[in-house]
Design brief:
The complex is a heterodimer of chains A (206) and B (578). Chain A is mostly helical. Chain A has 7 helices and no strands. Chain A is elongated, with a radius of gyration of 20 Å. Chain B has a single domain (30-577), classed as Cytochrome C Oxidase, Chain A (Up-down Bundle). Chain B is globular and about 75 Å long. The two termini of chain B are 24 Å apart. Classes of the chains: A mainly alpha (206), B mainly alpha (578).
């Protein structure tokens, strides 16, 4: 976005990639601080899981069901799908920075569809897990971590859906797009906390 | 200051009662939200004080008046109400009210989220207190809620009932309110400062708001994690997290809990320190000594606060003692810097002692005793001897409870004219101060002695050891003297609201921006702002021209402790900014 006659502001490329070249709005600062608090929340849960894992006599579910049934193909597939939705979400942000609302809506629709599919798969995982939440530390952390992550995915999807509806109504342009940038940052957080931490710990920690 | 005339409207003029109520219920104005926090937290504080009087009545003599179960419930609710519903929100009250005024902002960055914070806090508080009405009563595992006594996994003779769940959910809500509030404070300070208000010109109370905000932001979510794990543990997971008989670890709760609750004591004390710093800056008629060292000490306390949590767990045998002992000792250093700076501010100042200043000096004395006993505790061998005695109770009340309360009371007397346009009565204020000061020292110094003698905490009866009954009676008398002091305060508040002497825009000859607008300020806070060229813009406005040629007058601070910034004349500052 050209800024008229003002001299070009020097912006770090990473910052430019993530939140554009415009000055950061209060809303963006707000979502960044909020994501920090969310990171600490998941850090607490994950620390709890690691602590339990490091010092427990029976990690496997106590009902003898085994940790996860069958192979890991479906969880891996949906992990890849969820994390790769960061790409269309970022494209949506790129598009609206250029003022292209139509491209933004299409990219967000992809995110909404794939994100919803991820949640449906999580529901499938839960109903086919073979153990209940009361079956020992592993079972309890499995439901807690995937549950809270799922809740955050649903929250992110609702957030994106609300902005998508606003986009349909003609909101957002190249300068007024804080909500889209905020949703993008939040969506990256939701994807990466799954990819980097929860998924490997829940499915591969032996 | 022509801008200060006019714009003086009372918010109540010509409005009927329903309008006024609706306006307060729907307000997003940081000043009104701050005042609502103040009233609500004050009311909860009185409730917490009533609990303490029940406990002191029980402990005045040997023998029991109330049952052990009731006593457990009362001391649990005393701690929970005082910490989560009084000390934390009353800090939020002043941060809400004063911080945007001090940085020259219109309002908070997110006014509606600010209102949301307040209402979440209120409903969390109501949920916590409603637990008296459910079967099984309130939570009764202490405010620290250590499992497995909080759990209902078949191993307890009398498992706690729904009150425990209400406690867990209530505290999650209060934590959420804190987190939203902290995001608001941080973004407001980073983004909403008036032109010229650089970070090194923020008033010290605003600096404490910033550091407190960071502490809340990074520690409260960990408490939330602990609380949801506790809730799941009680409802479904059958103790898989915290009950050793089902594979859980009680120490895990303690680690998560104290990861929040140690920073939480700084969340409570830092705003009080900020208020005291501002009060010293006004009533000594000097700039606060070592402004930059104050800020750096504050940041150091905040950082160190994150790596000392396990000093609450020395006797568990599950933590690495030398590290946490050393880190805890280190905190005494920045705290000492602040202490000496406050004293140096008073040194050769033109000190005057209205009630706000009295409470600030009282804060120093109480915090000194609390801080020194804190260093005792940091030493592992001493802690092993004194753990869970009344020495601990005396120590933490001296620091985060009473010292913080003194700081907040100083804030009440200091900002009351700004909030309501009227002075609080000084005579009643001084009576309040002396009653409270004598009362709390009687209570908590005697508790230190009693703790050295080995009396355990959280017990509703005690052996008839020599001196114990006398000391307990003294504590009870002290508690009632303090309560009498607080009643004087309560009377003073209502008396001053109705008959208090009118205060102008700047009744104390303040130095920070909140005194540059009317009392009470208009909804938009400022009609115009003075130029901001130092951390004391109003001082510059009042005396800057007269002192321009004085070689000892430097706009950016007073030259002392001006951390390498050097002396800057007004013209130099103007050039840099021009």
């Amino acid at each position: 976005m050209a800024v008229g006659t003002l001299p070009q502001r020097r912006v770090h490329p990473i910052r430019s990639f993530l939140v554009g070249e415009e000055p950061m709005t209060t809303g963006l600062w707000g979502i960044i601080f909020f994501i920090f608090s969310e990171i600490m929340f998941f850090a607490g849960l994950i620390a709890a899981m690691l602590a339990l894992h490091s010092d427990t006599l029976f990690w496997e579910p106590t009902n003898g069901a085994g940790r996860v049934e069958g192979d890991h193909l479906l969880p891996i597939l949906f992990t890849i799908l969820l994390v790769s939705t960061s790409i269309p979400m970022q494209f949506a942000a790129f598009a609206i920075r250029k003022g292209n609302r139509r491209a933004m809506l299409i990219n967000m629709a992809i995110v909404l569809v794939v994100g919803t599919a991820f949640i449906i798969n999580q529901y499938f995982e839960w109903t086919h897990a073979g153990f209940g939440i009361s079956d020992g530390p592993y079972a309890a952390t499995f439901y807690t971590l995937t549950g809270f992550h799922g809740a955050h995915v649903i929250g992110g999807l609702l957030f994106i859906f609300a902005q998508w509806l606003r986009g349909l109504l003609g909101h957002f342009d190249a300068r007024r797009n804080t909500a889209i940038e905020a949703a993008t940052l939040y969506w990256h957080f939701v994807g990466f906390v799954w990819l980097l931490v929860i998924f490997p710990l829940v499915f591969f920690l032996s | 200051m022509a801008t200060l005339a006019g714009a003086q409207t009372t918010p109540y003029a010509g409005a009927n009662a329903w309008r006024v109520i609706l306006e307060w219920l729907t307000t997003v104005d940081h000043k009104k939200i701050g005042i609502m926090y103040l009233w609500t937290a004050g009311a909860f504080g009185l409730v917490g004080m009533a609990f303490s009087l029940v406990m002191r009545t029980e402990l005045a003599q040997t023998g029991t008046i109330i049952s052990a179960e009731t006593y457990n419930s009362i001391f649990t609710m005393h701690g929970s109400v005082m910490i989560f519903l009084f000390l934390l929100p009353i800090g939020a009250a002043f941060m809400n009210y004063s911080m945007p005024l001090q940085i020259g902002a219109l309002d908070m960055a997110f006014p509606r989220i600010n209102a949301l914070s307040f209402w979440i806090f209120l409903f969390g508080g109501v949920l916590l207190t409603l637990s008296f009405a459910v079967e099984g009563g309130t939570a009764s595992a202490g405010w620290t809620a250590y499992p497995p006594i909080t759990l209902d996994s078949g191993n307890n003779a009398e498992p706690p009932g729904a009150g425990m769940d209400m406690w867990l959910v209530g505290v999650i809500l209060l934590g959420q309110a804190s987190i939203f509030g902290s995001i608001n404070f941080l973004v407001t300070i980073f983004k909403m400062r008036a032109p010229g208000m650089t970070m090194w010109r923020l008033p010290l109370f605003t600096w404490t708001t910033l550091v407190t905000g960071l502490l809340i932001l990074l520690s409260t979510p960990v408490l939330a994690a602990a609380l949801v794990l506790g809730f799941i543990d009680r409802n479904g997971a059958m103790g898989a997290f915290f009950d050793p008989s089902n594979g859980g670890q009680p120490l895990l709760w303690q680690n998560l809990f104290w990861f929040y609750s140690h920073p939480a004591v700084y969340i409570m004390i830092l705003p009080a320190m900020g208020i005291v710093s501002d009060v010293f800056g006004v009533f000594t008629r000097r700039p606060v000594f070592g402004y930059r060292s104050m800020v750096l000490a504050l940041v150091a306390i905040g950082l160190l606060g994150f790596i000392v949590w396990a000093h609450h767990m020395f006797t568990t045998g599950g933590v690495f003692l030398p590290f946490f002992m050393g880190a805890t000792f280190l905190i005494a250093v920045p705290t000492g810097v602040k202490m000496f700076n406050w004293i140096a501010t008073m040194w050769r100042g033109s000190n005057i002692f209205p009630t706000a200043m009295l409470f600030s000096v009282g804060f120093l004395m109480l915090f000194l005793i609390g801080g020194i006993t804190g260093v005792f505790h940091a030493a592992v061998p001493v802690d092993f001897a004194l753990h869970d005695t009344y020495f601990v109770v005396g120590h933490f009340h001296y620091t985060m409870s009473i010292a913080a309360t003194f700081g907040f009371l100083a804030g009440c007397y200091y900002w009351f004219p700004k909030m309501f346009g009227k002075f609080m009565n000084e005579g009643l204020g001084k009576l309040h101060f002396w009653l409270l000061f004598i009362g709390v020292n009687l209570v908590f110094f005697t508790q230190l002695l009693l703790g050295l003698d080995g009396m355990p905490r959280r017990i509703n009866d005690y052996a008839d050891n020599p001196g114990w009954e006398l000391m307990n009676m003294l504590i009870t008398i002290g508690a009632f003297v303090s309560a009498a002091g607080m009643m004087v305060f309560l009377y003073n508040v209502f008396y001053s609201l109705k008959w208090g002497e009118r205060a102008g825009a700047d009744p104390w000859e303040g130095t920070t921006l909140e005194w540059a607008t009317t009392s009470p300020p208009p909804a938009h806070n400022f009609d115009s702002l003075p130029e901001i060229r130092s951390e004391r813009p109003l001082f510059d406005l009042r005396f800057g021209e007269r002192l321009q040629d004085d070689p000892h007058y430097h706009v950016n601070g007073n030259g002392h402790g001006n951390g390498g910034g050097g002396a800057r004349t007004p013209s130099a500052t103007a050039r840099e900014e021009g």
